[in-house]
Write a structure and sequence with these properties.
The protein is mostly helical and about 270 residues long. The chain contains eleven helices and no strands. Helix 1 crosses helix 11, helix 3 runs antiparallel to helix 8 and helix 6 crosses helix 8.
Length: about 270
C-alpha cells in the first residue's frame, strides 16, 4: 500500500516538471547575454533593459494592466449581482436555464467568442480598440465570477438571513452585512481569476483589437512571428513573475478574509 501511495506523488511531480520546465528554460535564457537560446554565453540583464527601454512596449503593458483591472472590477460587480439573481431565483427551471447559459459561455471556444464580438462590433459600428477589448474581456469574465461566487452563496444557511430579518435588518443590511461578508472569499477569487484571464487572453483580444491599440499577448504573438528574440523571453519572464505575485496576493487576501468569518461561526 505504501508503494501504491507513492505513485500519485510521482505522477504530480512529473506533471509539474512537464508544465514548468519550458517556462524556466525560457526564463533561463532571458538572462543570456547572447541573442539565441542555442548557447548561454554569460549572465546579463540586457534583454530586460531592452523591454523597459521600449516605450511602445511599456504603453502596451499599461494598456494590458488597465484593461485587466477595469474588466476584472466591472465583471466582478456584475458577476456578483448575477450570482445573487440566480441563487435567489424562485423559478427552478429559469434558474437552471440561466446557470446552463452561464456555463456554456465558460466552455465555449475563445475563437467563437472572439469572432462573435467582432461581428457584433462591426454591425453596431463600435470602433475596434480600447472599448471593444474592454467590453469583450468583461463579457467573458462575468461567467467566471458567477461560478466562483455561487458555491459560497449555496454554502450560506438561510437561517442567517432569517435571523438578520428577525432582528430588524433591512434587505440592504442583509446584503451588505450578512451576504457580502460571507461570500467575500468567492468575490476575491472571482476578481483575481478574471484579472488573470484578462491578462493572458489572446484569442478573443486578437479578434477585437484595432490599429493603435494592443495588449501584451497580441504583441508577443506579433513579435514571435517576426522572429524569436530573447526580448520575448524577458517579457514572458516578467509576466510570469507578475502572475506569481498576483497568485500570492490572492492567497494572502483569501486567508485574511477567512479569519473574521471563522470568528463569526464560532
Amino acid at each position: 500500500m505504501e508503494k501504491l501511495s507513492k505513485w500519485p506523488k510521482i505522477y504530480l511531480i512529473l506533471i509539474f516538471i512537464i508544465l514548468y520546465a519550458p517556462i524556466f528554460y525560457l526564463i533561463y535564457y532571458s538572462f543570456n547575454s547572447g541573442d539565441s537560446m542555442s548557447n548561454f554565453e554569460s549572465f546579463s540583464l540586457t534583454h530586460y533593459a531592452a523591454v523597459f527601454e521600449d516605450t511602445r512596449l511599456i504603453v502596451i503593458l499599461l494598456n494590458t494592466i488597465i484593461v485587466a483591472l477595469l474588466s476584472a472590477l466591472i465583471s466582478t460587480i456584475i458577476g456578483v449581482i448575477g450570482a445573487l439573481s440566480i441563487r435567489y431565483m424562485r423559478n427552478k427551471k429559469m434558474r437552471t436555464a440561466f446557470l446552463s447559459l452561464n456555463n456554456i459561455l465558460i466552455v465555449s471556444p475563445d475563437v467563437i467568442i472572439g469572432a462573435s464580438f467582432l461581428i457584433l462590433f462591426t454591425i453596431i459600428g463600435v470602433k475596434l480598440g480600447f472599448a471593444s477589448v474592454l467590453i469583450s474581456h468583461i463579457a467573458f469574465s462575468i461567467p467566471i465570477v458567477v461560478i466562483m461566487v455561487l458555491p459560497k452563496l449555496q454554502e450560506m444557511s438561510s437561517t442567517l438571513i432569517d435571523a438578520a430579518l428577525d432582528l430588524g435588518a433591512t434587505k440592504r443590511d442583509v446584503l451588505t452585512r450578512v451576504i457580502i461578508p460571507f461570500i467575500k472569499p468567492g468575490i476575491f477569487a472571482g476578481f483575481f481569476l478574471a484579472l488573470t484571464y484578462s491578462l493572458d487572453d489572446f484569442a478573443v483580444t486578437f479578434f477585437v483589437t484595432g490599429n493603435g491599440f494592443s495588449t501584451l499577448s497580441v504583441e508577443i504573438y506579433s513579435m514571435a512571428r517576426a522572429g524569436i528574440t530573447l526580448t520575448i523571453n524577458a517579457l514572458s519572464g516578467l509576466i510570469f513573475f507578475i502572475t506569481i505575485v498576483l497568485v500570492l496576493g490572492y492567497y494572502v487576501l483569501n486567508n485574511r478574509t477567512k479569519t473574521p468569518t471563522s470568528g463569526v461561526e464560532k
